[in-house]
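Internal tracking record. Fields below are filled automatically when a chain is submitted to the structure queue. Please do not edit lines marked as system-generated. If the sequence contains nonstandard residues, flag them in the REMARKS field before resubmitting.
Queue: standard
Priority: normal
Entity type: single polypeptide chain
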Amino acid sequence: IDISARSIAIMQTLFVGSHVPADREKLQSHMFLGFVGSFMLALKALDDPAAERRLIAGCAGDEPAKAFPDTSRVVQVSFSKDAPQLNAFNGAPLEVLDVGDDRQLPVLEWSLHPARPDAVEAARPPDNPTGPTVAPPPGPRLSADALRATWPQHWRDKFSEAELLKSQEEADPWADEVREAMRHTWRGYKAKAWGRDDLKTVSGKPSDWCRMAVTMIDGLSTLWLMGLKDEFQDAADWLAKQQMPTQERHGMHSFFEITIRVMGGLVSAFELSRQNVFLDTARRLAERMMPAFETPNGMPKNTVDVGTGDSKWVTWTKNALLAEAGTLQMEFGGLSHDTGEPKYGLAADRSMQTILDAAGGRGLVPIYLTRTGTPPRFNSNKISIGAMGDSYYEYLLKHWLQSGKKKTQLKEVWKVSMREMIEQMVEKTKGGTTFIAELMNGRKRNRMDHLACFVAGMLMLGSRTLPAEEVDSRWEPLAVEITETCYQMYRRTRTGLSPEFVDFDMNAMHGADIMVPRSAPHNLLRPEAAEAIYYMWYYTGDPKYRRMAHEMFTGFQKYCKVAWGYTAIANVNNVPVKARDSQESFWLAETMKYFYLIFAPRNTLNLEEWVLNTEAQPMRIWT
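SYSTEM-GENERATED OUTPUT FOLLOWS
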């Protein structure tokens, strides 16, 4: 039978393994869908086309080959990793080529969840000096006995040993998936933007703002926790040669962002590795930042040039911002603790105390303060646990923990803040979705930032670290509900990714009460929902949180992975997606770290010894 007669009628139906002549007078092209374990090419087809298709679809090994006459078979090969690919009929070598550019593709190990080698190769930066491995080595694994030793008693009280072991067995390959995502991100950065602040991951173009290798420094602790010590050391060696910051102009940039990303990253890297290059760099950076604290009430000017030490207030507002002035103690305090020089921590303490004096015993406070006055005045009626307010409340709790639970004033103000938040800002739709509203002039706005998802983790952390008699019984149930809402913010979009914020329809039923606004449909690779899930899993051990997290991470893998890393997308409900060609450093510092910690064994980071700053940089608790 002429194979050309077996062509697909009018090209409207495609059978796997079917053959379509590229030119009916000359050659034929052969199209295959899926993964090929063995391959056989025959010059003649079987007499019964239906039987042939059933044979191809349902048989493996040598069975299809035996059905064809020996005289018609010209190529037969079974692919095997690390073995030469030879035609069984004549011993001739065969190559597996990418039809796009004739690169030879590798043969992979058999896997139930294989990765397409052409897709892996296409995603590899072509001039990457290190090069990827198609099948990356698995991350650390613990034996069953070692795993048992990591489980707290309250995990054992709620879940059986079989359930907990199964959860880790399920999560191990997910941890490897995140670890490889970090390696992919790092390879792209090293190939295209090594030593620069940021990378446009679609176009491969580097960019700078404060000229402090922000992506590198922000990602250090994630590399360390994932056991990627070679990559970590590459950065340490590079940094040792730079003497950053330089004494040249670096430009005026956010004091707050430099503090949490760069100062926090350096202090954390030192406390994890004890390599002095990080502490020395942090000290030089702090010396350039300290003049910004020289204001009448101690709140630092909110932009600084880390090269010259110049600082000034931004011009877009006449106010200081709550989160910026109240998110300094962990980083500057950690530097003082590590260097033995009190001045850094004292400066940050003064800024926080200025806010507390202005609050006058209140918990919830507006997001704007006057720049002058001792104390200053709150200068707006907007109260938010999201943007411009969030990390102030976070540091009330976390710096109390970092201080070894010695700065009790911070803990007391945090408790008042949480009580007022629950009483004034927590809402629930008719469909049962719980969220934290915004307050404007005492009126609620039914909107929640993705940023506010951190509250669930903060409540869970507080409920497990404060003295039992001080714990509010509402904290943990609210943490559970907010975590579920944040998960639904992902689950209810076409891409499985959350927008920047959502609005709520108070009268809608479940499934229709979360709305993606036209003004913020984008996803910036933010971490806060994963952060919430991490704390829920860490303190409860419930395997459902790992499954939720993997579902969320799959959205990032499917829609955000590009040649040089991962990209923000413009609209979470548009498929195909529109890439924004941007990758914030918190993707490395926070988002991937939280996902990895959810899937890795619990003792990967011990929260009795470490507390995470707002950029997810682990800071050692002082003893």
